[in-house]
Each structure stands twice: as C-alpha cells, then as structure tokens.
C-alpha cells in the first residue's frame, strides 16, 4: 500500500533523505524500537494511540521514548476511521489525545496522521487549529502477510521501487518491524540515504514559535 506523499516542507527535495515514522505506539515494541534507533543515532516520529496510554505504566513508556529524543505524533485515541465519526467524536479522538500526551510529556504533538490515512475536512481544520502538520506516507509494508518477518520486511523497505528522495516511510509497533528496524536503517544508509531529524520539519507550531 502506498500513496504519493513526500515529506512536506523539506527545503531541498533533491537531497537523499527519508523520514521514518512508527504508528500504533506505544504497544509492545515501541520502546525497543526507540532504543534501536537511539543506538544508531537516528530519529523517527512515534505516532501514538490514546488507548495505549491508559495506564501509568504505558504513560511511563511514552515518557521514556520522548526523553530519548523522539517526537510524539497524534494518531487518534482509538484508531477509528474519522469519516465514520461525528465532528464531536472526531474532536475527542484528536484533541483528547493531544491533552493526554501533553499531560505526560509536557508538550502537544506537532504531527497528525489519520487512521488509514483518511482525513475529513473537519479533521484537517482541527489539525490546523491544534498547530499540527498533517502527514501521510509514501510506502509501508509491515501489515501485509508477505512481509511479517524480519528478513522480508528489511528487504522490501530498502529495495522497494517506491524509495525516493523525501520518502515518508511508514512502520508500525510490531514484533517483526522491531526486529527488522536496525537492518532497515543500515540498508537505507548504505544506499546513501540520510534519515531526517523530524525536528527539522517545519510545522504550524514551530513556525509560529520561530516568528515570535
């Protein structure tokens, strides 16, 4: 599954850069994935779901991931398709999660990814009101049954014909993805790609801060 979505607001699309993003965190593997990335000295955005932040233990995991230097993105509270929800329900899915993340780490998410990549006019407006950058992806494979092993996933993520400058790579909090992550990063770097630091991406929130 793929869409033609590059990293927005990157100054030089000719540069060999890619963005790593991890959805459905922090379930069972996100902390290990963060540790792997930190060891390799690269960054990713962890897009979180609120239903993985309901207990104090889960909250602590999020704090650890954030303390390791990883930006936290909003992937809605319950991962429901926004198009099936009323505006009030959409607001709860998005804003309640921002409130919960802020409660845990002291800052609100600057990135928003809708479940299944499906926004509504209302969710787009809400993301703008919340000063979040809307984000989709260029490619991802780890939910397809052919790629639910370390070897197959590492191979396709690095050797897919969809890899290009500015690609936004989608991964999930999954066991096989966690196992493949180190090989994916090294494979991309061996092809000459630099893993972009998400804090360098212009968002409505940091643009506003810079203007002050």
From TrEMBL:
PANTHER family according to UniProt: GLYCOSYL TRANSFERASE-RELATED (PTHR10587)
GO biological process: carbohydrate metabolic process
Pfam assignment, any one: Polysacc_deac_1
Domain NodB homology per the UniProt entry, residue ranges: 16-196
Listed InterPro entries: Glyco_hydro/deAcase_b/a-brl, NODB_dom, Polysacc_deacetylase_ArnD
Name recorded for this polypeptide: Polysaccharide deacetylase family protein
One term of GO molecular function: hydrolase activity, acting on carbon-nitrogen (but not peptide) bonds
């Amino acid at each position: 599954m793929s869409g033609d979505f590059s990293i927005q607001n990157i100054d030089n699309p000719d540069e060999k850069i890619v963005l790593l993003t991890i959805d459905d965190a922090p379930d069972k593997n996100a902390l290990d994935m963060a540790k792997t990335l930190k060891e390799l000295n690269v960054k990713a955005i962890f897009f979180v779901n609120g239903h993985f932040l309901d207990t104090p233990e889960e909250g602590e995991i999020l704090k650890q991931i954030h303390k390791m230097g990883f930006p936290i993105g909003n992937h809605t509270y319950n991962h429901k398709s926004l198009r099936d929800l009323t505006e009030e329900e959409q607001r709860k899915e998005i804003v309640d999660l921002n409130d919960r993340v802020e409660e845990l780490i002291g800052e609100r998410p600057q990135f928003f990814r809708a479940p299944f990549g499906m926004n509504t006019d209302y969710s787009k407006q809400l993301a703008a009101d919340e000063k979040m950058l809307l984000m989709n992806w260029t490619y991802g494979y780890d939910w397809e049954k052919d790629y639910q092993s370390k070897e197959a996933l590492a191979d396709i993520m690095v050797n897919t014909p969809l890899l290009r400058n500015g690609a936004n790579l989608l991964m999930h909090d999954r066991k096989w993805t966690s196992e493949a992550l180190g090989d994916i990063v090294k494979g991309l770097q061996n092809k000459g790609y630099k893993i972009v630091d998400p804090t360098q991406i212009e968002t409505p929130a940091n643009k506003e801060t810079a203007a002050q």
